Amino acid sequence: MLSVQAGISLTLTLLLSSAFPVTAQSTYPVKPIRLIIPYPAGSATDLTARDIAQILSRALGQPVVVDPRPGAGATVSHNIVAKSQPDGYTLLFATTGGLVSGPALMGNRIPYDPLKDFAPVSLINFVPYGLVSTPQLAVTNIRELIELARSVPGKLNVASPGVGTPNHLGAAQLMALTGIDLVHVPYKGGAAALLDLMAGSIQLTVTALQPVLPPHKAGRLRILGVGHSQRLKAYPDIPAIVETVPGYYNTGWWGLAAPARTPKPIIERLNAILQKGLLPPEIVQRFEQNGFEVATTTPDDFAGLIRNDLKMWNKLLKDANISVDSLQ
User: Fold this and answer.
1) For residue 71, is it within any domain?
2) What is the CATH number of the domain that holds 195?
3) Residue 269 contacts by C-beta under 8 Å, 6 or more apart in sequence?
4) pLDDT tens-digit series, residues 251-277
5) Strands 118-133 vs 222-226: parallel, antiparallel or unpaired
6) Those residues with Cβ within 8 angstroms of residue 7's Cβ, 6 or more apart along the chain or in another chain
7) Residue 101 carries which DSSP code?
8) For residue range 228-247, what is the model confidence (pLDDT) as tens digits?
9) Closest CA to 253 of 96, 102, 92
10) Is residue 36 part of a domain?
11) Are residues 245 and 256 in the same domain?
């Protein structure tokens, strides 16, 4: 039987031990945070992630270091975060490729579970992907490209930042819906592909619009169309691919996530920072000018989006007869 003194000591021990996690969460963060991104420096993902890092750093009072970990169609970066400590100091710039289209294509070949291994924080923006050509290719729109590709089957190549990315699957979807034959050329990131595209050593790529808008305006690249359901508000002169190819859709998203079991107060604090930080009109306008649409959510709504998009991409790939085997 415990003495009164022993009982008091045990009670104090239990109270103090239960208080430590609360104290740790309330003082978070006390050191720099690492933001893992799936593509190399200079990519559209990298440029946007640096904007998000600044928003988080200002609000949290700690540096947020952008850490590019490209490879395997965005799954390398996502796997790193899935296996990291759930303490709020390793965050993920989550992408459609890593959480939705890649898992939908690769199934259990992916080394993590997109629904169980992450704690979604918030959606950040939608990413309509564009089909872009080198000006050396004598086409000015999607219809002309389809006609040219049909006349020279297997002679035109299309680059992407990796197998299983929305970029890659956007090209595969275009081929499945039109019957054209393009040769897929995977890169480790979009920046190198764009350099080769401008040099004319590759003919096409599917990419987020941010890095290609300046060379498009300068005539060094040509955006043939976007994979959104309609034309973008900021760029109404660029047609939606669905106007020419019924059923085509290739709009992804980017968001913020943490490892599963990250404490809820940390998730909620990060969510509140993004909700406020992405609200100013100048931020919204800058995103739109870069070809994006700002869109924040609650953590639960972001989790629901991931679940629903997994179902959508599974159906999209099935309807277009796209599988791992068909892409090899």
Assistant:
1) yes
2) 3.40.190.10
3) 28
4) 999 999 999 999 999 999 999 999 999
5) antiparallel
6) none
7) I
8) 999 998 999 999 999 999 99
9) 96
10) yes
11) no
